């Protein structure tokens, strides 16, 4: 039919208009644009043809050929610029890509480990449990932890062999009393102590997944116990490891007023442990298995939990070890809560991995003796210390007028090389500056105070190490920030915002500033999201 129609139409056009047609494009019925009166809209049809949106179904070639296998209609190309184009554009323009990276995590550099590699496999740092067993065998009497009370007296110590044996007893208790299976979650409910550390390794020895939880406050159970209950329920914990005092609190009448105390999981008292050892110490089949769960409640009341693998633990501990130059003869002081994030890593994990001695100062002890932390730094001649903003604030407000008294007591902080504030928030510039200024009179170097930077998922991105330039503060123009640009200005300039450097990027960590819409890297001085690898 098409061929006959074409023959007649072409002859008519040729005889009437004296125009010879080479081909005809046929479109599906009723698809040509029409005028209001029902005729064919010629100008719109021509425009569609020029734009390539007419979409013919076949073409009749005069007089004998019909083409049916037409190519697909032209697709409109996206006008947006992709990430590759952004990167090429920045490079062509001579701009640096906004990215930075810490040192590479190379092979083992710890000399006291290298000397003894013949006695232990080279994969010893794949799991913390193997590191603890190795230290218990090779250097059993080396003191890893010292716990102080409010008077500055050591009320507890843990050598490598003591920690290993106590962890074995806790592992035996989990299998005997709790009937815990491999891979089940176990809640650790302890005050800041060495017991918490032993319970953590006891869980790993038994093949359980520890879930560290801040214990309820005995004077405020109504506000703090529901959070404990919530974490236990969300984590589906099969057992609770705790002390005798806290076990009584969980089963008390006061607790019953806030939660259902009859539905607690099995509670094991670590003050009464069996003397037996576990038949074997569990070794995970792969480092990608979960080592522990890191739970935290935000200031808005949002509960978040992060799964931390054995591989992530080893990489983080190694990164901190290299950044802070931690080894067996080193001594650090820790005054922060050990319940989540980097605080938990420093309190419980880092010493076992690196072998340094950690002086543990529970923050609540400062309520009885404000000068405890600073006096300890002076007494033990500590070069590196880690604290929280709450500890720094307590000292600033409570001891700000007592610097002369501290001097009279012989407190001298000139030994402190780095004082790092651990927090998952922006640096509190005014607080750190006030702290540095106040305690400069007792020898504290203004360059010693710095902050760490991390998040719930990336526990540590930046941390001030023992080498490298001192942290600096820069000022940026707030008007430029509103337009997603970063422009440095002088200190004191109008509409300026101070930005404090949060240490140095840890070894093995790479960060890049990315446009969240194109997901492409940005050039220097542009504002975007921080992506961490």
Automatic annotation (TrEMBL):
Instruction: Extract the InterPro entries matched here.
Output: AMP-bd_C_sf, AMP-dep_synth/lig_dom, ANL_N_sf
| Positions of the AMP-dependent synthetase/ligase domain | 133-533
Q: Write down the superkingdom of origin.
A: Eukaryota
Q: Which Gene3D superfamilies match?
A: 3.30.300.30, N-terminal domain of ligase-like (3.40.50.12780)
Q: Name one Pfam family in it.
A: AMP-binding
Q: How is this protein named in the record?
A: DIP2 disco-interacting protein 2 homolog B
**Organism name:** Nothobranchius furzeri
């Amino acid at each position: 039919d098409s061929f006959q129609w074409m023959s007649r139409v072409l002859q008519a056009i040729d005889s009437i208009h004296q125009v010879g047609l080479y081909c005809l494009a046929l479109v599906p019925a009723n698809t040509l644009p029409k005028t209001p009166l029902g005729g064919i809209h010629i100008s719109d049809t021509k425009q569609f043809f020029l734009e390539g949106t007419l979409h013919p179904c076949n073409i009749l070639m005069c007089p004998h050929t019909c083409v049916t296998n037409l190519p697909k209609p032209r697709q409109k190309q996206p006008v947006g610029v992709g990430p590759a184009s952004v990167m090429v554009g920045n490079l062509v323009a001579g701009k640096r890509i906004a990215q930075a990276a810490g040192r590479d995590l190379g092979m083992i550099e710890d000399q006291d480990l290298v000397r003894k590699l013949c006695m232990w496999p080279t994969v010893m740092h794949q799991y913390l449990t193997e590191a603890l067993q190795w230290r218990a065998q090779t250097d059993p009497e080396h003191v890893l932890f010292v716990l102080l009370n409010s008077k500055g007296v050591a009320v507890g110590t843990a050598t490598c062999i003591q920690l290993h044996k106590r962890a074995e007893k806790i592992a035996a208790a989990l299998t005997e009393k709790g009937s815990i299976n491999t891979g089940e979650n176990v809640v650790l409910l302890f005050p800041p102590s060495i017991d918490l550390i032993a319970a953590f390794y006891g869980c790993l020895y038994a093949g359980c997944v520890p879930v560290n939880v801040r214990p309820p406050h005995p004077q405020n159970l109504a506000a703090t116990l529901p959070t404990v209950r919530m974490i236990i329920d969300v984590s589906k914990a099969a057992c609770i490891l705790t002390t005798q005092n806290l076990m009584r609190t969980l089963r008390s009448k006061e607790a019953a007023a806030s939660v259902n105390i009859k539905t607690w999981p099995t509670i094991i008292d670590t003050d009464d442990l069996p003397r037996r050892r576990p038949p074997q110490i569990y070794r995970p089949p792969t480092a990608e298995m979960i080592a522990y769960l890191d739970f935290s409640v935000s200031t808005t009341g949002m509960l978040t939990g992060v799964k931390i693998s054995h591989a992530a633990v080893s990489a983080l501990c190694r990164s901190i070890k290299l950044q802070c130059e931690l080894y067996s003869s080193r001594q650090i002081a820790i005054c922060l809560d050990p319940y989540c994030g980097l605080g938990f890593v420093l309190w419980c994990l880092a010493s076992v991995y690196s072998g340094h001695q950690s002086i543990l100062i529970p923050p609540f002890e400062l309520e009885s003796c404000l000068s405890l932390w600073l006096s300890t730094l002076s007494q033990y001649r500590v070069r590196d210390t880690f604290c929280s903003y709450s500890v720094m604030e307590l000292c600033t407000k409570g001891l700000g007028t007592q610097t002369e008294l501290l001097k009279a007591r012989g407190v001298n902080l000139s030994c402190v090389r780095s004082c790092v504030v651990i927090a998952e928030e922006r640096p509190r510039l005014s607080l750190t500056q006030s702290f540095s200024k106040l305690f400069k009179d007792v020898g504290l170097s203004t360059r010693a105070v710095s902050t760490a930077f991390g998040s719930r998922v990336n526990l540590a991105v930046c941390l001030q190490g023992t080498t490298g330039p001192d942290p600096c503060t820069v000022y940026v123009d707030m008007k430029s920030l509103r337009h997603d640009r970063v422009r440095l200005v002088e200190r004191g300039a109008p509409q300026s915002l101070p930005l404090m450097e949060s240490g140095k990027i840890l070894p093995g960590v790479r960060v890049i500033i990315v446009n969240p819409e194109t997901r492409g890297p940005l050039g220097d001085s542009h504002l975007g999201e921080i992506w961490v690898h």
